[in-house]
Specification:
Helix 3 crosses helix 5. A 12-stranded mixed β-sheet has the order 7-8-9-6-5-4-3-2-1-10-11-12. It has 345 residues and is an alpha/beta fold. The protein is built from 11 helices and 12 strands. The protein has a single domain, classed as Aldolase class I (TIM Barrel). It binds S-adenosylmethionine and iron/sulfur cluster (2 copies). One iron/sulfur cluster binds next to loops. The site of S-adenosylmethionine has 21 residues, from strand 3, strand 5 and helix 11.
Length: 345
């Protein structure tokens, strides 16, 4: 269990700040239909110009300040983080910050060669989460929408395992009518493989993915499907605020997880802050507004000023979007919400 530090800043619901997700790019080589649909993210789409991206030293500084304020876990994400130039250098810089207990990355693994996996590991990356929504070529290509072959992602997963990353996780977003037939395929494939599979309920992030509640497959249903072939039982969480609900195969062949953001929200324990590739702080995945840290940095603000800014934002935090989602009286302005590819998963 991760304990909070004595001086740790708390939000309005007494939640500490423990995790920081850093998006290092808003670009991606996939066009997953539920994340960066090509009708929106087509050739004319205006991605962030390079000069607007936080530079490596700026990201490192931001990470250091968040760690001072209590963050112990950092996840690198995007867009597709492997696209970012000098990623290994960034990881080396961040892993050197005193106080970080966990440094991980979420990737589509399309570019995760053995050489790349080794250089990331050597730079200090401790864990990798790989996204893979289907095992059959047709469904996978229908989802990534760039005809990317599933075999290359499977090689990326093998490379992560061969390199020695601890606790490699495979994340699969399940959408009814798209890839719900993949649940058992994925469970069969990854059971006993050394990688832990986690199913994610499809969320209403952003405003371009045409989310409909009917497309959400509740984790309870996924569990029923898995039980038709494999007996599983729940496991108690590793630590307070653990996002995935853990289950284990009764035959001892490992664990499987479920991220129930829609049907059983976990805002009560949410200790995650996010920083976008352009240096805006978001205190919720469903936020419509970020707080601009980059301007402050580029105006020459001191560490003390930046730290105060972070503390002020966190201490005023009242986000609990997923808990409120089920409340019919809540009107949601979905047009303004930030996109997942911009803010990171
Ligand atoms: N490109 C990297 C990847 O795909 O792993 C990292 C960024 S991606 C935005 C992070 C994760 O968010 C992926 O696992 C993706 O499947 C998930 N994701 C994107 N949109 C989602 C949605 N609407 N609901 C649930 N998960 C979503
Ligand atoms: Fe790219 Fe990841 Fe979004 Fe797919 S889910 S489009 S791989 S950022
Ligand atoms: Fe955290 Fe917002 Fe998700 Fe709730 S909806 S768990 S506050 S990111």
């Amino acid at each position: 269990m991760v304990e909070s530090q004595p001086h740790q800043v708390r939000d309005k619901f007494n939640r500490p700040i423990r995790d920081l997700r850093i998006s290092v790019t808003d670009r991606c080589n996939f066009r997953c239909v539920y994340c960066m649909p090509r009708e929106v993210f087509g050739p004319g789409y205006a991605f962030v110009p390079r000069s607007e991206l936080l530079r490596l030293e700026e990201i490192h500084r931001v990470a250091r300040i968040f760690v001072q304020e209590g963050v112990t876990k950092i996840r690198i994400t995007g867009g597709e983080p492997l696209i970012r130039r000098d990623l290994e250098q960034l990881i080396e810089m961040i892993s050197g910050i005193d106080g970080i207990r966990d440094l991980s990355m979420t990737t589509n693994a399309s570019m995760l060669t053995l050489e790349r996996a080794r250089s990331l590991y050597g730079a200090g990356l401790a864990r990798i989460n790989i996204s893979l929504d289907a095992l059959d070529q047709e469904t996978f290509q229908e989802i990534n929408d760039v005809k990317f072959p599933v075999s290359d992602v499977l090689s990326g997963i093998d490379n992560a395992l061969a390199t020695g990353f601890s606790n490699v996780k495979i994340n699969s977003v399940i959408r009814k009518g798209s890839n719900d037939h993949s649940i058992l395929d994925l469970a069969r494939h990854f059971r006993g493989s050394g990688a832990t599979l986690r199913f994610i309920e499809f969320m209403d992030v952003g405003s371009t993915n045409q989310w409909q509640r009917e497309q959400v497959m509740p984790a309870s249903k996924m569990i029923d499907i898995i039980k038709t072939e494999f007996p599983i039982a729940p496991v108690s969480p590793n630590y307070e605020g653990e996002v995935a609900k853990r289950w284990r195969y009764l035959d001892g062949s490992g664990e499987i997880g479920f991220i129930t953001s829609v049907t059983q929200p976990f805002c009560r324990d949410c200790s995650r802050a996010r920083i976008s590739a352009v240096g805006k702080i978001y205190t919720c995945l469903f936020a419509s507004n970020g707080h601009d840290l980059k301007d402050l940095i580029r105006e020459g603000a001191s560490d003390a000023v930046l730290a105060r800014f972070v503390r002020e934002i966190w201490s005023n935090r009242i986000d609990r979007y997923s808990e409120l989602r089920s409340d019919a009286s809540l009107t949601r302005d979905s047009a303004a919400r930030i996109e997942m590819s911009y803010i990171g998963g």
